Amino acid sequence: MTRRDADPTTQGRTQTLERTQTQRPRLYRVLLLNDDYTPMEFVVMVLERHFRKAEQEAQLIMLAVHHKGQGVAGVYTRDVAETKVAQVTAEARQHGYPLRLVAEPEAES
Known about the structure:
Layout (H helix, E strand, L loop, with lengths): L26 E7 L6 H12 L3 H14 L1 E8 H17 L5 E6 L4
Antiparallel strand pairs: 1-2, 1-3
């Protein structure tokens, strides 16, 4: 009886299978940047709708944006972060607001 998957060139020898380790994908922070025109209420709504923040957390992030110039809306893989930036930017433009968001890589630890 012969094995169909047996490689005739390796008969009698041991094969070593190499295992590859999967790495976690790099994460990106989505930052909201302060401007003088976008209403605070719109920023809170964006945080609740697009970033699934509770009202109180959204208020705190909005205040960080207002007082510190930027606030972290969330941390995601690159594709998700870039999609959120595009979606929120499009919605802000539809409402006539210049709200800016950026996705930047998180510091590696």
